[in-house]
Amino acid sequence: MLLVAACATCLELGATGLYAATSLDFATKSTGAALGGFDLSQGHWATVSDATAAAGLAIEQSGAPTAGEGFPLAIYESVPLKNAQISLRLNAVGGKSDQGGGVAMRLSSLQDYYLIQVDAMRDRVLFSRVSNGASEEIVGVDADIASHSWHTLTVRAEDDEFVVSLDGSWVFTAFDKTLSQAGRIALWTKGDSVTRFDRIEIAPLP
């Protein structure tokens, strides 16, 4: 298991020539510590104590962005990936106008990426494309998403196909060809959401 505290370049080539699957935990971190291996310049990210998290600690984004900041993003500084399966747990613990979070994929800039989002306030799971900073919803499905509860979001991206599951159950399969190049992976939140993340797993695909 690769610990975030020791993660500088992150994914490494495996024996097959593909980048090896990576699991991130926070067992070696302390409350309020910075997160190695992530670009945290967008938002207010920190580790927080949480007895319900796998290692007793979670990543939390809190506080609404100031004008011009855009969406809060914790960008994982590994090699760019196009095809991958990503699984993470998230818990919407606060927010007056927004509650939830998600994962950005194929991120080439702060203005361009795919977004898979869990919206606990509106009970929706969404797949969107962000281009030049403008978000366009491609698929949105109603789902039972309780706040103050952990939910497991899984995304399997292969070329133009994105299979999305929540808590072990398939939610939808989306298709889009616009962003066809490899890019970064990032944790994402919106507005004044206070969201915690845990058990982040990344498995590159051919």
Could you give a short description of this structure?
The protein is built from no helices and 16 strands.
Can you describe this structure?
- It is a single chain.
- The chain is an all-beta fold.
- It has a single domain, classed as Exo-inulinase, domain 1 (Jelly Rolls, Sandwich).
- It is built from no helices and 16 strands.
- The protein has strands spanning 2-3, 22-25, 38-42, 45-49, 57-61, 73-81, 84-94, 100-109, 112-119, 124-131, 134-142, 150-158, 161-166, 169-175, 183-188, 194-204.
- The two termini are 21 Å apart.
Based on the model shown, name its key terms:
7-stranded antiparallel beta sheet; 206 residues; mainly beta; disordered N terminus; Jelly Rolls
Topology summary:
Elements: E1 2-3, E2 22-25, E3 38-42, E4 45-49, E5 57-61, E6 73-81, E7 84-94, E8 100-109, E9 112-119, E10 124-131, E11 134-142, E12 150-158, E13 161-166, E14 169-175, E15 183-188, E16 194-204
Biggest β-sheet, characterized? Answer: 9 strands, mixed
Rounded to an integer in angstroms, the radius of gyration calculated over CA atoms is 16 Å
Tell me the name of the CATH class.
Mainly Beta
Instruction: Please state the second-level CATH architecture.
Output: Sandwich
Shape: globular
Q: Note the total helix count.
A: 0
Oligomer: single chain
Question: What distance separates the N and C termini?
Answer: 21 Å
